[in-house]
Design goal:
411 residues; alpha/beta; 8-stranded mixed beta barrel; 16 helices
Length: 411
């Protein structure tokens, strides 16, 4: 198997409980520098981090299912697009330099009602954070900037002022635990969670970045603003970007979405995710995407995908949309410059689609083989078809060429 290209996706620093058991990870942005988070735009950095985490192909398959802590800048926190994921696993960290006003407090209350947990990052006991303390599930305190005596006294004051009357108390998390003495002291005065070099340094996570066309994503967002948009129109818009299609299917089939079954087409993905979720992902991809795509390659793949779907529809095969998926991803290795088997296995599609893509097996594989042969002008694979079936195959291919041409003109 070809070794896939390896990109630095992000770093993650473990968080442990008082029994040294892994409790969660804080995700840390990493750009070109693997040792530090260097960026100018916090919104873009966070969006890229989220896209890499949720839509990238991560080489570490054995990562445990634990809480994920993510720093969220104020602009993304207040927006409707910041994080289209299941709330049960995510802890949103409010940064120490965030402006605290009524709009932010109201937004935090709304997120709490949706099931998200909230952490106050680098909490310094200042009064401006008072409205958020009762809403916090975690309070993170940086040990490098506070003495042991001040820390203990401040915790006592916070207890008297805010915590003693709360039904649910926040957990205290010690950040930058650099030695055993600090660890033991924090445990003694009531900290429950711990993070720092004494326990474990941040781990670099590598994999394959899947960048997307910002232009296409913007067009999808624009379409979503139309009051009469329907699912078919949305699916056609998404289909214009194979990488975006791939990423959406990967996300919807990932454990993060916890669906009762795998989906096998973009239409199913949109139905399950919903228009609002698609909008959120499109906005995240707009902020993080910077790629250009060879138009002719996508013209070929779109034609192939549409021809597979149309022929399956003519033959009244079940779920013709899934045949579109087969055609679209048949050239995913050329799009992403990585081994096809590796990519398809990471996507984790339904078994019959995997077999069609990797072995041209099953009914879907047979249709893919017929359409691909027609593209190359090879007639032998069509010898077993009767006259009506041949006419339907040629018609599907001709209609698909026109459809793909019209789509590519709009890109």
């Amino acid at each position: 198997m070809t070794t896939p290209q390896t990109d630095l996706l992000f770093a993650r620093q473990p968080i442990f409980d008082g029994n040294n058991k892994l409790y969660g990870y804080e995700l840390l942005y990493r750009g070109l520098n693997p040792n530090a988070a260097v960026f100018e735009d916090g919104d873009k950095a966070t969006s890229e981090l989220l896209v890499n985490y949720c839509g990238g192909i991560i080489n570490d398959e054995d990562a445990p299912y634990v809480k994920v802590f993510i720093n969220l800048p104020r602009n993304l926190l207040l927006s409707d697009y910041f994080f289209p994921l299941e709330p049960s696993r995510v802890v949103l960290e409010i940064l120490e330099n965030t402006l605290i006003d009524q709009a932010l407090v109201d937004k935090v209350k709304e997120l709490k009602q949706l099931g998200y947990e909230i952490a106050l990052d680098d909490y310094d006991f200042s009064e401006e954070y008072d409205p958020l303390v009762p809403l916090a599930d975690y309070i993170k305190i940086d040990l490098l900037f506070i003495s042991d005596i001040t820390l203990k006294d401040s915790l006592h004051q916070l207890e008297r002022k805010h915590l003693k009357n709360l039904n649910k108390r926040p957990a205290f998390l010690a950040e930058k635990v650099e030695n055993k003495e600090k660890y033991d002291y924090c445990r003694h005065i009531g900290f429950e969670l711990f993070q720092g070099y004494y326990l474990e340094r941040p781990q670099l996570v590598y994999g394959k970045k899947i960048s997307n066309s910002a232009e296409t994503a913007m067009q999808i967002v624009a379409q979503l603003q139309e009051p009469d948009i329907d699912i078919d129109q949305l699916c056609h818009a998404i289909s214009r970007d194979t990488k975006l299609s791939y990423q959406i299917l990967k996300i919807i089939n990932s454990p993060l979405c916890r669906l009762p079954r795998k989906v096998s087409s973009l239409k199913e993905a949109v139905v399950f995710l919903g228009l609002e979720q698609i909008k959120k992902w499109a906005m995240a991809l707009v902020l993080s995407g910077d790629s250009s795509q060879p138009l002719e390659l996508f013209r070929i793949l779109l034609t192939r995908a549409r021809a597979c779907e149309l022929y399956a529809s003519y033959q009244k095969y079940e779920n013709p949309e899934s045949y579109f998926t087969v055609g679209l991803f048949s050239g995913i290795d050329a799009v992403m410059r990585a081994d096809k088997k590796w990519l398809i296995e990471k996507l984790d599609l339904a078994q019959d689609i995997n077999e069609a893509l990797l072995q041209e097996a099953g009914r879907k594989g047979e249709v893919l083989k017929l359409v691909s042969a027609l593209e190359q002008g090879e007639w032998t694979p069509t010898d077993h078809l009767n006259q009506a079936e041949r006419i339907e195959l040629f018609s599907a291919h001709e209609n698909a060429i026109n459809w793909a041409h019209q789509l590519c003109q709009m890109v």
